[in-house]
Amino acid sequence: xxxxxxxxxxxxxxxxxxxxxxxxxxxxxxxxxxxxxxxxxxxxxxxxxxxxxxxxxxxxxxxxxx
Length: 66
Known about the structure:
The chain is mostly helical and 66 residues long. The chain is built from two helices and no strands.
């Protein structure tokens, strides 16, 4: 009996998860070209900024005496 109750509980948990998952998928859409370009630009600027900060820290560590 106990195994069956746990099995039903797990099935309900999985059903709820997939219902939420499908709801999100229904809301999702492909971005327009303009939206994609803006997102790509912001991501590229972020990567370059983090890389530049890392490079500056690297150069400072080389200059500082041990």
